[in-house]
Specification:
two-stranded antiparallel sheet, Sortase, Chain: A, alpha+beta
């Protein structure tokens, strides 16, 4: 290539660079600004959609639950009617030593047909196996991970409670339909049991609950799940919303708030600290008194509610940020 050709090429390149600096710079800045606006819109939409989807899913569950209570021909109610109309002998399970127990067998009510005795018989009478309440049957059919429903009147807290023994964190980021949701679900601690059957039968028709039921929930910015639990720091608010309603699959329960306090999740090797989240079942009066005295001592205010050995508790736990791994805790004593 001739030298003149090389100079001409260099000159064209230099002219192009000058034009790029002067004429294309505003276009570059404008493009970057548009990209920024698009990213902000996507993030904002994602946050809004998650909250909207969570609220819609919950509203749908609530409306269906109310329909089950009012509609005589509702599938859930018809299911119960059909179940109760059948003979108990239809549900007798034969025990064969040569075959393993089927996974679906109701462990609390297994009958040995050839034994001549009813396994549900007790010294004080015979009890039928517990039947799921009509208001929850439909939801249990849809998702058998549900163990109950938590509600506090005149608040947004009105949700199903889930429990997965094999993986406690399964519903941290999944909704009732098992699809992704940043709000997740309310989760019953796997070290606690809601029990089965009813207190009216002293749980002879099932199994008694543990002394303390611990329910975990996300502190959502839109106030859903346990995002509104911070309001219970106010004594005035607590007085107006002091009853926690928790329905298991078999009975409705009520708890009166006995303490509201701030705590945290401690390291495993930290001792001489009160780890409220490790109290599940009081095997003796000393264990009960230790938990009770600590929650009263740490209370933000006096609710005026007392408890004694033999009482049952429900503990609502949510993340807070007053310290690292902070928690706000609301504890209720069972009154029904």
């Amino acid at each position: 290539m001739k030298k003149g050709t090389i100079r001409g090429t260099l000159r064209l390149n230099n002219n192009y660079k000058q034009v790029g600096r002067t004429e294309f710079a505003p276009l570059v800045f404008a493009s970057l600004y548009i990209v920024f606006l698009l990213c902000a819109a996507i993030v904002g939409y994602d946050f809004y959609y998650e909250g909207y989807a969570a609220r819609n899913a919950t509203d749908s569950l609530r409306s269906r639950r109310e329909a089950a209570d009012s509609d005589e021909n509702h599938p859930a109610r018809m299911f119960i009617k059909n179940l109760l109309s059948r003979n108990k002998d239809e549900y007798v399970i034969e025990i064969n030593d040569d075959q393993p127990m089927p996974e679906y067998a109701p462990l609390d009510y297994v009958v040995a047909q050839n034994s001549g005795n009813d396994a549900a018989d007790t010294d004080e009478g015979s009890y039928e196996p517990p039947v799921i309440m009509k208001s929850l049957q439909e939801y249990y059919d849809e998702n058998s991970d549900m163990v109950g429903w938590l509600k506090i009147d005149d608040t947004v807290i009105d949700y199903p409670v889930m429990q997965t023994m094999g993986n406690e964190e399964y519903y941290l980021d999944k909704g009732f339909n098992k699809k992704y949701s940043s709000a997740g679900c309310l989760i019953l601690d796997t070290d606690t049991s809601a029990g089965s059957g009813t207190k009216a039968n002293n749980y002879r028709d099932g199994s008694a609950p543990t002394t303390n039921l611990i329910v975990h929930g996300h502190n959502m910015r839109n106030g859903s799940m346990f995002g509104s639990l911070d309001k219970w720091r106010s004594e005035d608010y607590e007085k107006q919303h002091n009853i926690i309603k928790f329905s298991t699959l078999y009975e409705d329960r009520e708890y009166e708030i006995v303490s509201v306090f701030l705590s945290q999740v401690y390291m495993k090797n930290q001792t001489n600290v009160f780890k409220y989240y490790n109290f599940f079942n009081a095997t003796n009066e000393q264990e009960f008194n230790s938990f009770y005295s600590n929650i009263k001592k740490m209370a933000l205010y006096d609710t005026g509610v007392t408890a004694e050995y033999g009482d049952e508790f429900i503990t609502l736990s949510v993340c807070t940020y007053h310290v690292a791994n902070g928690r706000l805790v609301v504890v209720g004593k069972r009154i029904k």
